[in-house]
Amino acid sequence: MRSIRTSAPLGRGRRTVLAATGLVAALALTATACGGSEEDTASDKPGATASQAAGGSGDGKVAIPSDIADKLEDHGIDVDKWKNGGWEDWDKDKWLSEAKDFVNPVIEGLWKPERMRSAEEADKTVSTKDAAAAQGVSDPEPAPVRAQAEKTPYHDNAAPVGKVFFDSPEGPSVCSGTVIKDVNHPGKSNLVWTAGHCVHAGGNGGWYRNLVFVPAYNDLGRSEADLTGASASEIAPYGNWWADWASTSNGWIQGGSETGGDGAAYDYAVLHVKPEQGSKSLEETVGAALDVDFSAPSVAEAGTMGAWGYPAAPPYNGLQMFKCVDAPGRFSLSPSLPTMYRIGCTMTGGSSGGGWFRVVDGETVLVSNTSIGPTDNTWLAGPQLGKDAEALYRNMSRTHGGR
Fold first, then answer.
1. pTM value?
2. Which residues, if any, are the signal sequence (predicted)?
3. Which of 127, 259, 263, 282 sits 20 to 30 Å CA-CA off 229?
């Protein structure tokens, strides 16, 4: 989560306890039985920007399509050297920022349990002046909602939710993500929804590296002491899923910053992933995926929302899944930017990218994702997902979903 340093809470009294309780009961993020089963164009800012990555072969060796190999060569990148540690070179001239330059070859064994536990959240701050710039646009600050631990095992209670790991110039980092359905590949989706700042640094940087999604991380919610010496299968029951394609908005790439910036309202991303080992799709393996609601409902229409994720900054340690349920209000960093949703929630950094869900016609759908929050961890804000987000999603599904 990108943190915001805000002024003193204004408070608001419109909490809907009964509605929140009902949403928890209705949010059936459970798994089904495993195993089995129109042309849109991306717009300009804040629209879709697709990226292409190097892939891997079944024998564990990196397999690079010829066109991608040519692009890597143009940037002076030797894929074998990259795989053997060259990715740690964050020279600004090699920190690739253009979509076509995203590079994420599979490096088997890189994300071991201990390395996952060492990953830290990217917790940033902005000034009180920036946070207060949209007064009159934002609704009063919500009362904090204490995050509740999700029931275990996670695959029975929140199957589509997991963690997103990546390497940044600061070291191993972590976000959260959600398995979503693929409209062009029903029942066999390999798509994951997360935040734009979990895949790309924004206007002053480039694509992050070694992006991996781990569904139902630490499925039994075991403590740090109990996980000492835990096997990879205990930490990642469904394995590691490497991003071989990624898309985030031009709005985030051009306007995103360490503090969220003008890109916060467009802070969303879609990953297309492949298993480090195995051949089934992510949806088949996990047994669940959620539709995305691109109607961008107003806060009055939205009703109650729930945010899920793996908070990693104190008092949390990133090992357990938590959730917050609340009635959303409006929030914006500037009157010139679209409003975001905001709910009361005490989750901290590491929950970034985690899905926000609501119930539509009896079905649980993803309606936003965690983007920014204050340094005192009393609320979360996430982007509204409208036509530009849908264009990004459909372009990803159409162009890369079947790979």
1. 0.85
2. 1-33
3. 282
